[in-house]
Autophagy-related protein 18a
Amino acid sequence: MAQPSATHHIPSDSDSEPDDSTSTTPSFLSDFHKPTQNPAIYHLSFNQDYGCFAAGLDNGFCIYNTDPFKPQFRRDLGSRGGIGLVTMLFRSNIICLVGGGPDPMYPTSKVMIWDDHQSRCIGELSFRSEVKNVKLRRDKIIVVLLQKIFVYNFVDLKLIHQIETVLNPKGLCEISNTSSPMVLVCPGLQKGQIRVENYGSKRTKFVMAHDSRIACMTLTQDGRLLATASSKGTLIRVFNTLDGSLLQEVRRGADRAEIYSLAFSSNAQWLALSSEKGTVHVFSLKVDSGSLVTLANDRSHVASEPNQSGGLGISSLSILKGVLPKYFSSEWSVAQFRLTEGLQYLVAFGHQKNTIVIIGMDGSFYRCEFDPENGGEMTQLEHHNFLNLDNFLKPGETFP
């Protein structure tokens, strides 16, 4: 197995001058000027800071910048097969690939470590069953199978930990990206249970988050806050990973829905959600991540703390919460954005204040702005079909 090489970085924007030492018109770009049918999308994922996103296609993969929206590069691997999973390592040249689709490029039981500087795979990790997810840190590779998770050191691909989980067909697993040592969360061994691994204190904590199976989860960058949704998709719960205490509960709606993605804002003031109902929600959070221990020890303080959105999202009928059904007193979203119902979208917070980035399995990209004071419907700032390169790549232009 080859070891990962030193990394170089994707530029944060496309306004910089090209490097004179390299060709400014790579051969793989020529296909972008041909009026061919859009490739099928098998996988979408954001990088660790939401500054880029990757698309696994039936003939390779693409990387895009989110803010401003610009294509970074595409690797068209021809007729060799599909990519079912793409995981970026921040903006570096190291990308993990797993085959997918009807004709996988690589076995679905292998993680291929692609070095884009060399345009080839420099290592691989092989398993006996299908790889469901891959998570990357600068020091770790985490591979998720149906009922097991493997944690490797990045530098030498040495296995350092194995975790057993309940059936996990979605490959649910989240890791802290900025904290060191790492915090890892995944499904536990029971329905509705979350396992929290703190590699600093070497402690494992189990949290009964929901009565139904876990359908979606996300962590803050430092790993101190965890948000979870169940297969019912009505309530989203926010936990303190330090002690497993429930800090806040918000409501998407009263009817069942599959939750596709959850995302914290960088300051943990907001939580975004996308679901099969075609609506993206933004919730106001009342948790100060800098005083989690204090809040965890004083649950009444959490319950009585005023909503930072000026009361938005709290039902005006909350005074009757002892009489009316529970959903009348739940905390509802501050802002919403309507999309096509039934399509799968992923959501993240943009680098501009109060903005949301949405990417869809239909090739759609949206950037929206929400009003933190008045709430309501978000304002659409951008919309692109990121597979239709004629929309944003003029003849003769190349990617940075």
